């Protein structure tokens, strides 16, 4: 993505009063966020060039909490559940629970199959960002661990 196109995109977003915008393809990713301060945050700092492997770039540039929290992200698109049943009676994790790498933190139903979601980090569950029975996108942050 060249800077002329980025400048045009920023100008177009501002002219149409767009507060947040995210674009991602195989070569590049851009995220604009004009919701803080006066809206002129130098969005060019939010540009990342990918080196071909999308898995190597799971960090969100504008994420303020990345130094405070470790994130557990959704590995697929589907419906997130905190237990293996649709009625929430006994969630696998709750805020304040200590989890280890490899522990099951929930399930994502995709194509009528319940897939176990395991933690790739260890620590204490600080926030569960997705409610039981909510749809999630690929790479969406589900849980913050401290």
Automatic annotation (TrEMBL):
What are the boundaries of the region Disordered?
A: 37-68
Give the source's domain of life in one word. Answer: Bacteria
InterPro entries for the chain? Biotin_BS, Biotin_Carboxyl_Carrier/Decarb, Biotin_lipoyl, Single_hybrid_motif
Polar residues bias spans = 38-68
Q: Where is the Lipoyl-binding domain?
A: 69-146
Which SUPFAM superfamilies does the record associate with it? Single hybrid motif
What PROSITE patterns would the database entry show? Answer: BIOTIN, BIOTINYL_LIPOYL
Keywords from the named record: Biotin
Query: What single Pfam family name could you report for this chain, choosing any that match?
Result: Biotin_lipoyl
Task: Please name the Gene3D superfamilies in this protein's record.
Answer: 2.40.50.100
Name of protein: Biotin carboxyl carrier protein of acetyl-CoA carboxylase
Species this chain originates from:
Staphylococcus caeli
Encoding gene per record: accB_2
């Amino acid at each position: 993505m060249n800077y002329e196109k980025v400048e045009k995109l920023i100008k177009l977003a501002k002219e149409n009063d767009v507060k947040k915008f995210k674009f991602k393809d195989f070569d590049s990713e851009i995220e604009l966020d004009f919701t803080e301060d006066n809206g002129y945050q130098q969005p060019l700092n939010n540009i990342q060039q990918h080196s071909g492997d999308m898995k190597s770039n799971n960090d969100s540039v504008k994420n303020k909490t990345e130094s405070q929290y470790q994130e557990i992200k959704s590995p697929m698109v589907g419906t997130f559940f905190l237990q293996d049943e649709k009625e929430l009676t006994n969630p696998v994790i709750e805020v304040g629970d200590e989890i280890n790498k490899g522990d099951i933190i929930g399930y994502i139903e995709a194509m009528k199959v319940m897939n176990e979601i395991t933690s790739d980090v260890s620590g204490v569950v600080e926030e569960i960002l997705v409610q039981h029975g909510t749809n999630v996108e690929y790479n969406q942050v589900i849980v913050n661990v401290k």
